[in-house]
Amino acid sequence: MMFTGKTKNLAVIGSPIEHSLSPAMQNAAIRAAGLDYAYVALPVLPERLEDGVRGLRALGFRGFNVTIPHKSAILPLLDEVDEAARVVGAVNTVVQEAGKLKGFNTDVDGFCGALIAHGCSLRGKHVVLFGAGGAARAALYGLFRAGAAKVTLGVRDAEKARPLAQAFGRYGEVCVFGWHDGAFAEAVADAAIIVNTTPLGMAPRMDEMPPVPWDAVRAGAFFYDIIYTPRQTKFLQQAAAHGCPTLNGEAMLVGQGAAAFALWTGRQADVSVMTRALREALEEQRK
After folding, report:
1. Residue 4's pLDDT band (boundaries 50, 70, 90)?
2. CA neighbor of 82 nearest in space, from 73, 71, 94
3. Would you please indicate which residues are annotated as catalytic (active-site) residues?
4. Rounded mean pLDDT of the chain?
5. The whole model's pTM is what?
6. Are 88 and 137 in contact (CB under 8 A)?
7. Facing residues of 63 across strands?
């Protein structure tokens, strides 16, 4: 592909950024759509974030993704944010239009879209979430927006997570219990969907997993882990052994990227192309 003065530029910023899979996914989608765009990974240190954003604005970048550790810190540097980004308190996608920067949170779309695409209806459901970090915030907002009836947070420290439960209580019923609380096991027994939003089980610490009260899990409960390395975490392996359907974080990663692509280009991304590029990039990383 020939890059010219007409090429529209896109990027992902973070620190570190060397192992980002976004360039592989986004450039594959750009090629498949035949668009004159280019997507690069740019290292931006936390103390240089303001400079970095100013530079991307000045250089006329059409947009960029935002990853760790900038997702919340970037909020005051933008001209506008959408409701999802405001509620979740994090931005992962920025669009530049006429010199103005607008922030979005497409993790919300990626999280719920992956479930829905796999035939898992959310309306009226009780969902259990392990964790209370940034990913849990995006999941909470998405679940209630999609019509979930109730969300129970299972966490190490219930008191620490209570403010999160209270903040999202305006959108739906949220309960929070310690992992080993008897009431948490009761919530698991009632849940149709059980989600891991913690890093427990992520490579290289693949022997870890959230403490699921397996005796309480109802038959056919859907297990979803937002981790995608490894493809089958211990959490999902155990769920499958109990006869439960499972889903890893690959579709969420692709989904949030496809949503960002649509915001920048006004075109729908070829999700199958992005998925194939992601798997190839992951295989290269494993080597």
Report:
1. confident
2. 94
3. 71
4. 96
5. 0.93
6. yes
7. 10, 95
